[in-house]
Predict the structure of Regulator.
Amino acid sequence: MVQRSIPEHLFDDYADILAQVSITGRRLTRDELQARRAFGERAAGEGYGLRQLVGRHLARTRAVWPELPGAVGASGSRELRQVAQSVLAAAEQAIDAMAEGYERAQLLAVRQEEAARREFVDDLLYGRSDLGRLSARAERFGLRLAHSHVVVVARGAEVFDDTHPVTRSVEDAVNSRFGERRVLLTTKDGLLVCIAPGTHDEVVEYFAAQARAALGGGSANRVAVGRPHTGPGGVVQSYEEALSALELGDRMLLETPVLRAAELLVFPVLTRDREAMADLVRTVLGPLQGARGGAEPLLETLDVYFGAGCVSAEAARRLSLSVRALTYRLARIHRLTGSNPADPLHRYTLQTAVIGARLLDWPARSV
C-alpha cells in the first residue's frame, strides 16, 4: 500500500525549533510541545502513518543538521557534541509529543467508532430506529438489511462484552474464515451475538462450533439459533427467537447444546392457549402432588422416560436407577393419574402435559 507523501512545509516549525535549540541548548517549551501534539492529531486525522511521521522527523533532523546555527558556529568537537546532544534531545521530545497526539487522536477515533457500533447494535436488535436510516447505517458495518439474516446467540457462565477474551477469540476465528461474508459479531446483555446472512448456513455452524469450544461444558453454556428473516425488522425477530429458544431450553431442561428456533416451534403452539394447557397440567399431573416427595421426582421420571424414547433401560441409566425402580415409579404414576405411560394414547396425553408443566414452571408455580 502506497502512503501519501507528507508535504515538506509541515516540518518548517520543527526545523525552526531545532535551529533555536542548537544555539541555546534549551528544552522544548510547553507551547512547542502542545504544537507538536496538535500536529500529531492532525496527521492522524489526515491518514498519515505513525512510522511514516517518525521517519520524516528523523530525516528532517538529519537534513538540517549541517545548517543549524549552533553546529555551524561550534568552535570545537566538545562544543559540537553538546550541540548534537541538545538537538537530539529536542528531536526526542518533539517526536514523543507528536506520537502522543497521534495516539490520542487514534484512541478517540476508536472510541467514537465503538460508540457508533454499540448504538447501531442496540438500535438493530431492539428495532427502535427508523428502518431506512438503520439500513443506511448497516452498510458501514458490513450488513445489507434488505437481504435475509439469521441471529445466533451464545451464553456462558460469564457475562461477555466486546473486550472479553472469548469474544475476541470467536470473532477472530469467524472473521478469518468468513471475513468477506458480511458477518457482524457483537455482544448484547452479556450474550455473544452473531448476525449472519440467512443463506450462509456454514457461518452459523462455524460460529456455533467456535462458541461452544470457547465456552466449554456446563448446562449454563448454550447456543441458540433464530430463523432467517428479511429486512431490518427480520434481524430483531430472529434475535428474539434465539432468546426464546434459550429460555425454552432452560425450562424444558433440554440437553441439546445448540437450540434451533425452527425445531422448537411446537412449544409456542402448545402454550398459545395458556389456560387450556394449565387445565391439562392440573387435570393430568395434579394427582402427582399427593405422592411422597411431591410431584417433581415423578415429573422428572416422565420427562426422562419420554426423552429416552420410552426405553426403560436407557431412562433408568439416565436417572441412575435400576430398571426395577423405574418400573415401580411408572406404576405409581399410573395409579395416581390413571394414565399408563406404556399406553400410546395415554403416553401422548402425559407427554403433552409434561411439556406444559415445564413451560409453565409447574409445580414450582401454581397453574
Summary: The CA atoms of residues 224 and 246 lie 6 Å apart. Strands lie at 148-155, 184-188, 191-197, 222-225, 229-230, 258-260.
